[in-house]
Every structure is written in structure tokens, then in C-alpha cells.
Amino acid sequence: MSIKEGDFVKINYTGSVDGNIFDTTYEEVAKEDGSYIEEKTYKPITICVGGNHVIPGLDEDLVDKEIGQEYEITIAPEKAYGERDDNLVKSVNVKDFKEKPTVGMRVTSEGRQGFVTNVIGSRAVVDFNHMLAGKTLQYKYTIEEVVEDPVEKAESVLDLFTGREFEATLEDGKLTIILPPGITYDQRWMMGKGMCVHQIFEYVDGIEEIELKETFKKPKNDAEPEPVTESPEPAEE
């Protein structure tokens, strides 16, 4: 079975630059490489082919591939994270930081993500280019399976954009998403909720309505109630 645009697929992959691994879905590969992160869950990711869920070069390469075979691809910067832009390297007064800046520190400014590359006296150099900008990437990947279940497709979109696992049900075209505890305070959820809803409507067939449910249980003391799961919240398309 050849993969086509619009298919949801589970893929395992390892990405590297000049032989140095920067990302992998394989736990054993990360441990052997010394890049293992204990807090990270290593598992195949589910994406929609053609949905811009991965970099363009990898997304395009998935079309017409077969399940279970390992593929290798080299991706130029223009099909990955773009070329470096020197205008995105800024000099910032250290007084503008909430804490003392150090090399490698990640920062956010005006919605842009960057990292500190140098600190000289009262100035810190912040690079707002993606860390892989200007790099030619190598990927090894395997398409493990095609996902057919619309609920699993929707859950995968939520996972991709928020990094959180959700439970959902589908009945008569209505997708009900059970919100996990504390999600209303999660910045990634607040920023990505609208995009999740839009992508589910666009890429998952058979869904005509989305309901977000959150439940609050009365606490045993006088503290404010904490969110648990289930109480309707209108979805944003």
C-alpha cells in the first residue's frame, strides 16, 4: 500500500546533522547516542501527510512510500528550517532579562523563540533563528502503519500541537474531547487550541461538531476548585 497525501501515518525516525543526532523517536537510539531525555516519551508520531506536521522535505518524501520499509533522505535548508538570517541575531541589555542570561538559555520575545549565544559585559547576544536554520539534515524513517480511526486521528492532532494526551469520543459526527486536569492553565493549549480545532475539521473526515469538556469537582477545603475533566466549552474553528 503506497502512502498518499491526506493519509494519517505513524512514523519512527531519526534526524541528524553531520552524523550528530538532534531528534529521534527511538529510545534505544537516544540512549546509545547519549542524547536521551528522561522526561521525553519516545514513540512513533502520528501525522497527516501533506498537513505540514513535519518539515516540508520529509512531508513530501512520504508520498508513494510503503509501510514497514526504512528510508533515508537528505533535506536541504530550504526544505527544512530555512537559511540563517543575520537580522534575527539581536544584542539585548542583560537588564531586560528576568534572570541572569547564560549561553544556551531559551528566551521568548514578541512571540519569537530564541537562545542566548554569548554574553559580553552588559549585553547578551540572542539568536532568533531556528537552531537548525541553514543546516542540511539527514533523516532515516519508517512508516509503521496507516491510521484509519477518526478519533485516533483527532487525538494525534491534539498531541502534535499541545504535547498532551487527550481522550475523545465520536458520535453522530460530534467529537467530544475530554480536557485533562489543569489544561486551562497550559500555555501551549491556550495558543494551539484554535489550530487543533481547525486542523481536525480540515483533515479528519466525518466530524461536523467539536465539544471541549471540562469537569470541576468540589474541593474538600475552601480552596478554588481544580479542573478535572468534563463541562462543555464551545470550540473555536
Q: Which helices and strands appear, and what pairs or packs with what?
A:
Layout (H helix, E strand, L loop, with lengths): L7 E10 L2 E5 L2 H7 L11 E4 L7 H6 L8 E6 L13 E5 L12 E4 L2 E9 L2 E5 L9 E11 L2 H13 L4 E5 L2 E5 L8 H17 L5 E5 L2 E2 L8 E2 L4 E3 L3
Parallel strand pairs: 11-12
Antiparallel strand pairs: 1-2, 1-3, 1-9, 4-9, 5-8, 6-7, 7-8, 10-11, 12-15, 13-14
Low-confidence stretches: none
One letter per element, helices H and strands E, the order comes to EEHEHEEEEEEHEEHEEEE
The CATH architecture term of the largest domain is Roll
CATH topology of the largest domain: Chitinase A, domain 3
> What is the total number of structural domains?
3
Can you tell me about this structure?
- The chain has 237 residues and is of the alpha+beta class.
- It has three domains: 102 residues, Chitinase A, domain 3 (Roll); 42 residues, Beta Barrel (Thrombin, subunit H); 89 residues, Alpha-Beta Plaits, CATH 3.30.70.2210.
- Helix content is 18%, strand content 34%.
- The protein has four helices and 15 strands.
- The strands form four sheets. Strands 1, 2, 3, 4 and 9 form a five-stranded antiparallel beta sheet that branches. A four-stranded antiparallel beta sheet has the order 5-8-7-6, with no helix packed on it.
- α3 packs antiparallel against α4.
- The longest helix has 17 residues.
- InterPro entries: FKBP26_IF, PPIase_dom_sf, PPIase_FKBP_dom, SlpA/SlyD-like_ins_sf.
- This is Peptidyl-prolyl cis-trans isomerase.
